[in-house]
Amino acid sequence: MSSDAERSAVLRLDGLCLQRGARTVLKDLSGHFAAGSLTAVIGPNGAGKSTLLAALAGEIPPAAGAILRAPGLRLGYLPQLSALDRYFPLQVHEVVALGLWPRLGPWRRQTRSQRGLVQAALHEVGLADLAHQPLQTLSTGQFQRMLFARLILQDAQILLLDEPFAAMDEPSTQELLALLQRWSAQGRTVVTVLHDLAQVREHFSHALLLAGHAVAWGPVAEVLQPAPLQRAGYLPVLPAPVPRGSCSA
Prior knowledge:
It contains 10 helices and 9 strands. With 249 residues, it is α/β, with parallel strands linked by helices. The longest helix has 16 residues, at 170-185.
């Protein structure tokens, strides 16, 4: 890694191997995420995308290798919606306020200014009028917006998002993609598992293509080429074109 890249890296992977039970999911993964970068993690089903994010969040220990974090790094993690309980008896503003927990601790009450921060976060994601709604009344898009509001209050330096736009309508998706751009402009690092390659091309600076290992990692324009996508099983391998003036049996 160059000295410039070394200085800008907030998270580095050094020969990382990850397992689920006895099965190796990812192996020999090395590279870094630079401050302010927007990285889409892509690959076919079972490629190790969600496992990687869980490991970056500290929920899965490396089987080998290391995850090296910048000192004092504040990290926010949003798992897949299917992993979250949407029927817990809380109101929207109470869930969003959980983003203040590192500053509040388990027993301190919110100050007036902190309640203002909660309302401002809800306003940023378009949920200011739903602050006192029970969770079970929210649509999928509204529920995800609420979780983004909670992330805003965590004031994290690196955001790990696992399929954050699954089952969301297009307007909500575009608004939250714009929020990711604002986070990047603020110098925050965003690592997002995605399946929509059009979204990756339009909104992300870097991509990490997985298939049990890193097939390609770098600028989006380089990663989303036919050759690496084919090696990862994302595109069918097409036959070589037949030269003009010849025929095949």
